[in-house]
Write a structure and sequence with these properties.
Elements: E1 6-10, E2 16-17, E3 33-37, E4 69-70, H1 75-81, E5 85-86, E6 90-95, H2 101-112, E7 118-122, H3 127-137, E8 144-147, H4 152-162, E9 166-170, H5 187-204, E10 207-212, H6 225-229, E11 232-237, E12 244-252, E13 260-266, E14 269-272, H7 276-281, E15 291-298, E16 301-313, E17 321-324, H8 328-342, E18 349-355, H9 367-379, E19 387-389, E20 392-393, E21 399-400, H10 405-414, E22 419-423, H11 427-430, E23 437-441, H12 447-458
Parallel strand pairs: 6-10, 6-11, 7-8, 7-9, 9-10, 15-19, 17-18, 19-22, 22-23
Antiparallel strand pairs: 1-2, 1-3, 4-5, 11-12, 12-13, 13-14, 15-16, 16-18, 20-21
Helix pairs in contact: 8-9
């Protein structure tokens, strides 16, 4: 009897090699070659194949589909999706274990099932577990069907029988096809099963949600091609020890990738947070150095967050640098600018930086607020609670303008901030549109005297 032949498949790009290598010859990633049994050449048809003859047609003669978008019942998720769930689309939702992916999908299933037929396929939980969660969340819609199955052929038969408008698969790593000998969750199984669900969505016009696990590096488990095949990739972020959750789109063929949705986890499930700025500032300490408010843009939404800095002397030759919610390398860069331009001795201090509320700031507009919080922490200067800061900081200490200054100022004024530090070049665009006092600055050298003056005025 011949032994089964094996090949090595890259978990990132899907490249196949006969021999193991420490580095993938295609994408050049290290330690990604995984051994699998060679898949025999068989028919590529799967249980979802309709057998229809496919013909090309002119783009000018192609009819525009009548379906556009369906609201999920959660405005925050609709915002991230670009206005709602598009029929015939495939959405990949990923996140940490226990972050609330299944809870979110069961809740939107309840809303979608009011006017659509929804099939919820679970490969991780039993019917009893789903029923208990549904009762806790109040999910009792009549057109919501559940199926606890991991075999692709069995799932395809049930999909053909029910013809659901929305199909939810929780999760893609638990589904397997008998056409392949590899175990569920392997590169081959994930790729082929995902392709089967994508074919089903495109042929029938059903919207498909796929839940994806993440690996120890924080990326989506399985081949990288999985993210290329789907129409949208959503990340569910947040600290499980805190109540707030954030959905962020990193790919979206039907909308922007800059929008975020904010939720709060409670005993009754996930609740939308329509005004996240107020939630992020809740419990903000007053009369404490190192705390600065910042307004950033997440897509079309301005968000106000609190930046906290703690600077403490150290006796060790290598001071510690910690940044939670902000890029570590960017933190080191800003520390170097402040030490070189303002002669502040951060090299003899430990520096701890934290973005309150579990937010993750990626926009350069947060640079100036981070710098202000660091200056406040090392000089022990209290920042007035009604002062807010935004702007990009360059290596020469210059303060650069950022887009959407008008929206930022409007949001800050709405939440009661009466003093705003912003780039000098942005002042003409917002002057006369707010009652707040505007401090336009052109370089970091203007910050220290301004903070000292405002701190004394507050006292």
């Amino acid at each position: 009897m011949k032994s089964a032949k094996t090949v090595f498949v890259c978990s990132e790009c899907g490249a196949v090699s006969r021999k193991w290598a420490g580095k993938c010859p295609e994408c050049e990633r290290w330690n990604t070659m995984i051994e699998e049994e060679e898949v025999p050449s068989v028919s590529t048809k799967n249980g979802f194949a309709s057998g229809k003859e496919v013909k090309a047609e002119k783009l000018s003669e192609t009819a525009l589909p009548s379906y556009i978008r369906n609201e999920t019942g959660m405005g925050e998720l609709d915002r991230v999706l670009g206005g709602g769930l598009v029929s015939g689309s495939v959405v990949l939702l990923s996140g940490e274990p226990g972050i609330g992916k299944s809870t979110l999908l069961l809740q939107i299933s309840h809303e979608l099932a009011r006017g659509h037929k929804v099939l919820y396929v679970s490969g991780e939980e039993s019917r009893g577990q789903l029923k208990l969660r549904a009762e806790r969340l109040g999910v009792l819609a009549g057109e919501l069907y559940i199926l606890t199955e991991t075999n692709l052929d069995a799932i395809s038969r049930e999909c053909m029988r029910l013809s659901p408008d929305v199909l939810i698969v929780d999760s893609i790593q638990t589904i397997y096809s008998e056409r392949f000998t590899s175990v569920a969750g392997s590169i081959t199984q994930v790729r082929e099963c995902a392709m089967a669900f994508i074919s089903f969505a495109k042929e029938t016009g059903s919207a498909v949600f796929l839940v994806g696990h993440i690996n120890k590096e924080g990326g989506i488990s399985g081949p990288k091609i999985l993210e290329h095949m789907v129409d949208a990739v959503l990340y569910f972020e947040g600290d499980r020890r805190q109540s707030y959750r954030i959905i962020r789109a990193i790919k979206n063929r039907y909308g922007s990738t800059n929008e975020i949705g904010v939720f709060e986890m409670s005993d009754e499930g996930l609740k939308e947070v329509p005004n996240p700025s107020e939630a992020m500032l809740e419990g903000r300490p007053l009369s404490v150095s190192g705390s600065a408010a910042c307004v950033v843009m997440e897509g079309s939404r301005p968000l106000i967050t609190e930046i906290q800095a703690l600077v403490a002397p150290t006796a060790f030759p290598s001071p510690r640098r910690t940044a939670d919610g902000f890029d570590y390398n960017r933190t080191c860069l800003l520390l170097a600018v402040l030490e070189r331009r303002l002669n502040l001795k951060f090299s003899s201090h430990d520096v701890y930086l934290n973005i309150a509320g579990g937010m993750r700031l990626l926009e350069p507009a947060a640079d100036l607020a981070v710098a202000v919080s660091l200056i406040s922490a090392i000089t022990d200067t209290v920042i007035p609670p009604d002062l807010i800061v935004f702007g990009e900081l360059g290596l020469a200490g210059e303060v650069r303008s950022v887009p959407h200054a008008e929206y930022r100022v409007k949001e800050a004024s709405r939440l009661g901030f009466r003093r705003i530090i912003l780039p000098k070049s942005a002042v003409p665009t917002v002057k006369g549109k707010t009652d707040a006092v505007l401090y336009g600055i052109g370089s970091i050298f203007e910050i220290l005297p301004l903070l000292t003056k405002e701190g004394k005025r507050e006292e």
